[in-house]
Amino acid sequence: MKKIVVLISGQGTNLQAIMDACKAGKINAQVAAVISNKADAYGLIRAKNSGIPTAVFERKNYADNSQMDRAISDYIDGIAADLIVLAGYMKILTAGFTRHFAGKILNIHPSLLPKYPGLNTYQKAIEAGDSEHGTTVHFVNEKMDGGAVILQAKVPIFPDDRIEDVEERVKIQELQIYPLVVKWFVDGRLKEAGGKAYLDGQLLAENGYA
Ligand code: GAR
What is annotated as the active site (predicted)? Predict the structure, then answer.
């Protein structure tokens, strides 16, 4: 069975959706380990409740980002993971890490990339007066939120929306699309080549499939 390692920093609702889909047999893989860069991430409790091994790598214990990422990649190599899933992992990975696992790292980002890479996407969308927002699953490369887009989900922004309103709508979509994309990857249907994403051998459009 294929092995997935999930990296988190916080709540772990996306992690939960992926663990649940694996447990239910919807994804033919096991979450082999959950890694966090925050010792108090609630997602670690979710993993423990599901009997999944956890590991914490804190920046303060390493001389620099490269050494920290080297420790994480050694740990993942030890598991022989087939796929690395970033699920709310809020630390930028070094180029050494992303190259080592090229084509095997997925991320979910709460915006319709290439719009709003980085932090505070909800605030940016509301302040810009956008009428829609969304979330993107993409392959991870050296550029932050810059890898090939795979799948996006859109939600409306209504005139009086607060950040929490839009975030709630986006989260509901994330819990649908992330397990689906993980399933595509596990089933061997999704590949990255030359900085582009392919599903069943077909090139996905510049902005993935929205
Ligand atoms: C998700 O909404 C995800 O899109 C976002 O963090 C949240 C994690 O929630 N990721 C990023 O902002 C990455 N730049 P979760 O811990 O409940 O899955």
Answer: 109
Give the span between the Cα atoms of 114 and 191, in whole angstroms. 20
Tell me how far CA of residue 170 lies from CA of 17, 134, 163, 174, 183, in angstroms.
14, 6, 11, 6, 20
CA atoms of 115 and 165, how far apart (whole Å):
19
Q: Whose CA is nearest to atom 9 of ligand 1?
A: 88
> Which pLDDT tens digit goes with each residue over 91-149?
999 999 999 999 999 999 999 999 999 999 999 999 999 999 999 999 999 999 999 99
Check residue 59 and report its DSSP letter: G
Active site residue 138: no
Residue 20 CA to residue 39 CA, distance in Å, equals 23
What are the strands, taking DSSP E only, across the chain? Answer: 2-8, 29-36, 54-56, 83-86, 105-109, 132-139, 149-156, 190-193, 196-199, 202-203
Q: Where are the domains of the chain?
A: 2-203
How is domain 2-203 classified at the CATH fold level? Rossmann fold (3.40.50)
Closest by CA to 100, choosing from 133, 125, 123, 66, is 66
Catalytic option among 100, 109, 133, 138:
109
* 2-8 vs 29-36, strand pairing mode: parallel
